[in-house]
Design a protein that fits this description.
Length: 341
């Protein structure tokens, strides 16, 4: 048994249970023959042919794909949530080196997908070609036109919509877009509805979040912090749970994914809860800066440390990561000194 399979075996019970709770009622059957049929290329009636517009034109899929390559970050999770195991998955610089997050391990069936290295920067197109895909999903990625032409020469390639910005994509639309391309539009809609219901239930079960302010930050390699826009992937879930953007930050994003916060401007981060991406990696440096440690949110115990796995998951909201992140967010927020007062 390989180390990856061993990890999947250990996590299968806990994460499969979590995923089952999250999407209960979303589909007739999330396992067994339905999954086998989907993986074999079966699709919903009248699903093909389908043409989907995107930022570089349109892509037509004429029949159910059987070898799907996922190039977009989190796109593999969407496929796995639909019962489809891709032949290739993207690798990001984070908590895993095989492109499969722990939240997705129980959903992988059959052979392990090929890992596409450096998927968020400069991946090797030849690696995609070698996987021999009949459909390439590159929705959540910053694909330029030259790369698109190379990918579409290999197989029909799906990108995000023309009116959307790289890395700032609504997870609901990503899910339904991918579901349509693989011939499972109704199932994709059910996945979205199930996760939206889970978010709504979590918000209703935690009315103390309403009206509170929260921000999510990361320490960049240049030493400065970046605070994420409420429309960015990392912060979308905070907004959906009822949190508001700190007033001092609200007008600074200007349609940008994030805004740089240097030490002299740390006071812009004053809020009820400050969620810090990969905080342990930055803790020593941050706690050596009085400008940070003297913030009210820090002194009151409102800083929430996100470990590498949660930090990865929150950066790519989708039907598999959201249940995992919700559980972590709610537990960590409610365990803070601020929440216990």
């Amino acid at each position: 048994m390989t180390p990856t399979l061993s990890r999947r075996a250990m996590l299968s019970i806990s994460f499969a249970t979590l995923a089952g709770i999250a999407v209960a009622g979303c589909s007739d059957d999330g396992s067994g023959s339905d999954v086998g049929d989907a993986a074999a290329g079966h699709a919903e009636p009248a699903a093909f042919p389908v043409t989907i517009d995107h930022k570089f034109g349109s892509t037509t899929v004429t029949q159910a794909p059987t070898r799907i390559a996922a190039v977009g970050i989190g796109d593999a999770d969407v496929l796995l949530s639909l019962g489809l195991t891709p032949v290739l998955v993207p690798v990001w610089k984070g908590s895993t080196d095989d492109g499969i997050g722990v939240w997705a391990d129980p959903s992988v069936h059959g052979a392990d997908p090929v890992a596409l290295a450096d998927a968020t920067t400069k991946f090797v197109v030849e690696t995609v070609a070698a996987a021999d895909p009949d459909l390439i999903i590159a929705v959540n990625n910053a694909i330029d036109e030259s790369t698109y032409q190379q990918l579409s020469a290999i197989a029909p390639t799906l990108l995000h919509a023309a009116d959307q910005t790289d890395w700032v994509l609504p997870w609901q639309e990503v899910t339904t877009r991918i579901g349509t391309a693989v011939g499972l539009p109704a199932q994709a809609k059910q996945e979205v509805q199930g996760i939206e219901s889970l978010i709504a239930r979590t918000r209703d079960e935690n009315p103390q979040f309403a009206g509170k302010t929260a921000a999510l930050v990361i320490r960049w390699s240049d030493g400065n912090l970046r605070a994420f826009s409420p429309s960015a992937a990392r912060a979308q879930l905070l907004t959906q749970l009822g949190f508001e953007t700190p007033p001092a930050l609200k007008d600074r994003f200007e349609n940008k994914l994030n805004v740089e916060i240097s030490a002299e401007n740390y006071d812009l981060l004053e809020c009820d809860y400050l969620l810090f991406d990969n905080y342990e990696k930055a803790r020593g440096e941050m706690e050596s800066q009085p400008a940070f440690t003297n913030l009210n949110v820090v002194r009151s115990g409102g800083v929430i440390s996100l470990d590498p796995i949660v930090s990865d998951a929150v950066s790519m909201p989708n039907p598999l990561t959201i249940p995992f992140v919700l559980e972590e967010f709610v537990a960590k927020i409610n365990e803070t000194a601020v929440a216990r007062r």
